[in-house]
Amino acid sequence: MTKARVGLLVAAVSLALLAGCDGGDEAADGTRPDRPGGVIGISVLTMTNPFFKEIADVVTAEAATYGYEVSVTSAEFDPARQRLQVKDFVVRKVSAIILTPADSKAVGTAIKEANAAGIPVFTADIASLVDDAKVICHVATDNYAGGRQAAKAIMQALGNRGKVAIIDHPMVESVILRTRGFKDELREANSPIEIVGAWPGKGSKDESFKAAQDILTAHQDLAGIFAINDPSALGACAAIEKDNRTGKVLVVGFDGQLEGKQAIKEGRIYADPIQFPDEIARRTVHAIMTYLEGEKVPPEILIPTRLYYKADADKDPALKAD
User: Residue 24 to residues 286, 288, 293, 309, 310: CA-CA distances in angstroms?
Assistant: First the structure.
């Protein structure tokens, strides 16, 4: 090869490399070639609940636009399992970790292990309640305000009278806030509605069905149930229907999942304060990217709920027609 040809080849390679390095603009698919990429680990509470599956799916899609891969795992309500998942993320030296804690107190140990490894931790939907476990940013529904909305809905549903029960899951911070908001709204409104107690439903349809059966047996004069998520509300509805008390015991849920919205359309659930898991997921990814770029992020980002009634369901194109 002649010196002239070598010179031309070097020049061509140099131009190609320069073109490859000039990646400041987004590609047609929205990715950023100048991003370093890496892996984000996420451990959700459960994949049996569509809410958390949507968070995982949207985090995966949103992170991909920044050039990041997402490793999705699920604790399935088991804090020990979640801790092992975080250990694996630490070993793999992921760029960041997202947690929706299986237990808001037990999760502290796992977060501290990530802290010690210098891996930033973000929580989504459910917060940690351990003060010395460092979380960069918590992105969630404004669960306390949503609980207050649920109380307003149950006052409307019952004409502000009667006895109500709560199907609870006090292991996680988001539910603690919902039930606190629910109780505070009734108290501050001087409502004569009586809360007869709270029963654990573990956030699942099957467990909440059993809890609702116990409630209905113990309180023949029950007028309403506040269920802390849609699976709990659907379990309560099934128990009410089995006990032939449809229309006599009204249910207010929380979430706005598709199956819950369909039950509102059918009149089985009175209303839901609806959440926006897609927005929680996107805002969490944006917070991670902001942090990794060396910029400050707020310690907490709260997303308001909105009460969703049958009138909303009747206009919702995502639901099955009557």
Answer: 18, 19, 14, 46, 48
The DSSP bridge pattern shows strands 272-274 and 306-308 to be: antiparallel
CB contact set of 216 (below 8 Å; sequence gap of 6+): 222, 239, 240, 243, 245, 249
Beta carbons within 10 angstroms of residue 12's beta carbon: 10
Q: What is the three-class DSSP state of 207?
A: helix
Contact 71, 41 (CB under 8 A): yes
What pLDDT does residue 37 have? 77
CATH number of the structural domain 143-275+309-314: 3.40.50.2300
Q: SS3 breakdown of the chain: % helix, strand, coil, rounded to 5?
A: 45, 20, 35
| CA-to-CA separations, 315 to 115, 264, 274, in angstroms, rounded | 47, 12, 15
- Give CATH 3.40.50.2300 domain extents, the chain: 35-141+277-303, 143-275+309-314
Can you say whether residue 121 is alpha, beta or left, with left for phi > 0 and alpha for psi between -120 and 50 degrees? Answer: beta
Alpha carbon of residue 86 to chain centroid: 18
- What SS3 class is residue 72? strand
The pTM assigned to this predicted structure is 0.82
pLDDT > 70? residue 1? no
Judged against a pLDDT cut of 50, whether residue 29 lies above it is answered with: no
Alpha carbon distance 252, 152 (integer Å): 10
Residue 24 has pLDDT above 60, yes or no: no
Chain mean pLDDT for the chain? 91
How confident is the model over 205-255, as pLDDT tens digits?
Answer: 999 999 999 999 999 999 999 999 999 999 999 999 999 999 999 999 999
Whole-angstrom distance, CA of residue 232 vs CA of residue 165: 12
**Token pair of 167, please?**
């199907």
Fold of the domain built from segment(s) 35-141+277-303 = Rossmann fold (3.40.50)
Q: Is the pLDDT of residue 17 over 60?
A: no
Sheet of 68-74: strand order equals 68-74, 38-44, 96-99, 121-124, 137-141, 300-303
